[in-house]
Design a protein that fits this description.
With about 130 residues, chain A is mainly β. Chain A contains 2 helices and 5 strands; from the N terminus they run αβββαββ. Helices cover about 15% and strands about 30% of the residues of chain B. Chain B has 5 helices and 12 strands. The longest helix of chain B has 14 residues. Chain B is globular, with a radius of gyration of 19 Å. The chains are: A mainly beta (about 130), B alpha+beta (about 250).
Chain lengths: ~130, ~250
């Protein structure tokens, strides 16, 4: 392979407008831990770069807390059999995934099942399946 | 001066192109995540002073790790102040990264091949890239820079060699290391003997940012009958992230 002698002068280089989009799994989620939540869906956003499931989760004392589950990109979900109607508000589902590093009620979904135990989609998602 | 050098370099690049039968790279290619073995012959063609970084597919370097890339002091200072949360804004979340990062990401792409132009259609952020095979050179240095850059290609035996300039500044490793708009990238693409795998080396130099050169080895598998899906990024995703409440996993 030949290298081309492009000479880059320090002056005039543009870095000021740098902005990129995709957020890092490793920075936001703890891949060494797992969290499972069961709750009633209040919203399902099926848009790239990530889908979001919002659900009300009751603890043992009956206190309800709102959780959000971030999903793989819907282009990835689609290839695993998901559609924008796979989950509807009012559905009770259980989500298993990786917890947010900041300790907030935010999880990266690995799998989701209906109340009767049926897997949503055709297969769970792994770390390698991001984004 | 830079324009003259770039034009001369492109002329040399194109004159060296041999007239060989071109393999057909057309098809839907999905990134391979496991069982990847680097092609020694392709690695051997990388220039000296190049480090092959291991962050293809879903892999990502932790903060302040860059796989052996040697950062200039200014680039290192920027990386030290980078905060991942700063990317989670309406303004940034749907801004695509440049081809320097996108080419290795965990999303599929399609190749549509003709004699004079080869089109790469990436699912990631709906990006489209044209590889001009008609003998043209790169545009003048002051021509617009874009996230996909300007690519010219030639066949070197059974390998497609793509030379890309005019890439707008963006990320290299998605952890605070950004390239300048003077980055120069050369890729080599080769089919496996049975045609089911596409292998590539992605080499880049950016003297404004790096003291050495970087490269990746990337592999995809052919998935007949599949198509690139629309990405249609919706930035309102970050509103969901920002609205997450307090208190989470016990």
């Amino acid at each position: 392979m030949r290298t081309l002698p492009l000479i880059a002068a320090a002056a005039g280089l543009s870095l000021a407008a740098v902005a990129h989009a995709h957020h890092s799994f490793a920075v936001f989620f703890d891949a060494t831990k797992s969290v499972t939540i069961t709750g009633k869906v209040t919203a399902f956003r099926f848009t790239n770069p990530h889908g979001t499931i919002v659900l009300d989760v009751a603890d043992a004392q009956g206190h309800v807390r709102e959780w959000r589950a971030e999903t793989n990109a819907p282009v990835v979900l689609t290839r695993r059999g998901w559609t924008r109607t796979s989950i509807k508000p009012g559905d009770t589902i259980t989500i298993e995934g990786w917890p947010s590093r900041d300790g907030k009620p935010y999880v990266r979904m690995r799998s989701a099942v209906h109340a009767d135990g049926r897997l949503i989609g055709t297969a769970p998602f792994g770390r390698q399946d991001q984004s | 001066m830079r324009a003259v050098l770039a034009t001369a370099a492109a002329a040399v690049f194109l004159l060296a192109a041999p007239a060989a039968a071109a393999p057909d790279l057309s098809g839907f290619w999905s990134p391979a995540f496991a069982g990847i073995e680097q092609d020694p012959a392709m690695i051997a063609k990388l220039p000296a002073n190049t480090v092959v970084i291991d962050d293809t597919g879903a892999a990502e370097f932790p903060r302040m790790e860059f796989g052996g890339l040697k950062l200039k002091p200014d680039a290192l200072a920027r990386a030290e102040t980078w905060q991942a949360e700063d990317e989670m804004t309406l303004q940034k979340v749907c801004a695509p990264p440049s081809i320097v990062y996108s080419v290795q990401g965990p999303f599929p792409f399609e190749i549509d091949q003709t004699g004079d132009v080869i089109a790469f259609r990436y699912e990631y952020y709906d990006q489209i890239r044209l590889i001009f095979m008609d003998g043209r050179g790169h545009p003048p240095a002051d021509a617009p820079h874009t996230k996909m850059g300007h690519s010219i290609g030639r066949w070197d035996g059974d390998e497609l060699v793509v030379d890309t300039t005019h890439i707008a500044a963006s990320t290299i490793t998605n952890n605070g290391l950004d390239h300048s708009d003077q980055i120069h990238m050369v890729e080599r693409y080769k089919l496996s003997p049975d045609g089911t795998k596409l292998m590539a080396t992605q080499w880049f130099e950016d003297p404004a940012v790096l003291d050495n050169n970087g490269a990746r080895f990337i592999e995809w598998t052919k998935q007949p009958g599949q198509y690139v899906l629309p990405y249609e990024c919706d930035p309102s995703f970050v509103l969901e992230y920002q609205e997450r409440g307090e208190g989470g996993a016990e």
